[in-house]
Structure formats: C-alpha cells, structure tokens
Amino acid sequence: MDFSSLGKGILILGLVLVVVGGLLWALGRAGVPLGRLPGDIRIERDGFSCLVPVATMILVSILLTVLLNIIIRLFNR
Prior knowledge:
By secondary structure, the protein is α+β, with helices and mostly antiparallel strands. It has one domain (3-75). It has 2 helices and 2 strands; from the N terminus they run αββα. It has helices at residues 3-29, 54-75; strands at residues 41-45, 48-52. Strands 1-2 form a two-stranded antiparallel ribbon. The longest helix is centred in the first third of the chain and has 27 residues, at 3-29. The protein starts with a helix and ends with a helix. The mean pLDDT is 89.
C-alpha cells in the first residue's frame, strides 16, 4: 500500500467521522432524546448514576451501517 491510497483512506475516514459527529450534534440540538430513548437503562442512586444506552446504541449502529453502505456503494462505481 502506498502513501497516496493510505492518505486517501484516512481522509475519507475523517470526513465520515465529521459527518457523523455533525449529525449527532444536530440531532442533540434538535431535541432528539439520544440517551433517553425507551430501552435505555438508567440507574440512579445517592452519589451514583449509571447509563447504558442500549436503544441509542442500536439506533446509531443501524444509521452508521446504512450510511457506510451508501458511501461504499458510491466509491465502488
């Protein structure tokens, strides 16, 4: 693998991360309750809190899978 293709891959990965980060930021500002969806586990006690965002992780995983499949199909043309 030469540096040209390695650089291209890193650049594409960086752009994907920027897009995903921007989408998550925009969804948070729009009031989408990521981390507070039904199915997210929240345990709060005196001096202790634990959040396990199961539903949010599944939703983000599905969205990333669809996004990455679209990107891969566009680059394989």
